[in-house]
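look at this record:
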Amino acid sequence: MNVLFVSGEAYPFFASGDLGEMAGALPVALRQAGVDVRVILPLYDHVNPGLREHLGYVAGFTVPVGWRSQYCGLFEVDVRNVRFYFIDNEYYFRREKMYGFYDDNERFAYLSRAVPEALLHMDFAPDVIHCNDWQTALVPVYLNLYYRHHEKLSRVRTIFTIHDLQYQGQYGPETLEETVGIARENFHIVEFDGIVNYTKGALETSDLINTLSPTYAEEITDPWYGHGLYDFLRGKRDKLRGILNGMDVKEYNPATDADIISRYDASNFERGRALCKKNLKDIFGLAKEDAPLIGMVTPFEFQKGLDLLLYMADQLTDDGFQFAVLGRGEGHYERFFEEVAARHAGRFAVKVETSPKLARKVYAGSDMFLMPSRTEPCGLAQMLALRYGSVPVVRETGGLRDTIVNVDNDTGNGFTFTSYNADEMRDACLRGRDAYGDPEAWRKLVRRCMECDRGWTAPAKEYMNLYDDAMKLQ
């Protein structure tokens, strides 16, 4: 089986979130299972310098973008037994960050069109092209419109993975011919509510669709979660699946992690986690008292459920919890956390920054890990918390519901709540506090958390089944 995995980012080259983590880890697991998987990415300017110097030149060609043509260089490198290809165009990708520019519509239309063009220059013929999120959503559209006459691409199947439906690649209809390069008579393929919608185009033209968790696959057909596309997605239920993400258990391993002050594993964690908790308190300036410490590593964004904490932060601090919060994002959340920290010095602390190394210290040093999300397509943070022995406190939505089971005597791996309600969130935290007060029960709970298998082996098998299903389609 040959698979081309297409993404806007991938670890270890460049990654901004869960998409980059998946694009770096799933292909490795697929390769280990015997799939000839290749990954194709844009060559951003800030690619890891140590890896850039090993890139080998494959080909140079032009890519249609609207009415014009743009240069494309194709490079390759092998990392962890997987071949990565890079689409090079300095005009589009030599910038200080990956996303957030006025011409993102053109940049990623170019990327999507460059993928089938690049395949014509590769010594590789995929059975399946696996696309991810709106940045690569036009690949199946272009493939069906312009490339099926090529023998190499005539029978290739397409998978489209929705990582977060709220980001769809929506642009004005004037971009259709000028930028996207699709004739007016084909507007219906990418049109939704009168505008160009890249994600809708992928949903229309891909052979199969999946999300990052079974629950999220159901949720996006509901108006609360569907971001306008819910009714359209209901009509696609026959080709919509949910496959729960994994995590890179080699990269994230408290027994070998050089970024935490003391290493430990599931069979011997008490001293190591105690030292990590002390270190975390020192870094955040928290009081030395023995109190249950809640950690958070999160973008400061609306969908992360931070409004519940806005309402309940003072009460939870009065309940005896300490907080170590790491993240950045929307200004009103940043100001709120800083104000709470000023009111509760020594008990509530925030660092407004993005730091992967400090994030690992939060996972290793916190007793509980709070994720009160409005929506969570899968979530990586709760899996990392489990891996490092921080007991998750989560709202039952998306992948949180599929990975965290509420504690009941000697079963479960976290404390959950159902409604988007601050009192329910507090109740889940208090149940965690009560469990923390029973040292023997808490040790057993932490061990259960750390023994959860959240690696990529099982998800990789599910993706192989998905690819098989796509290849069987007529």
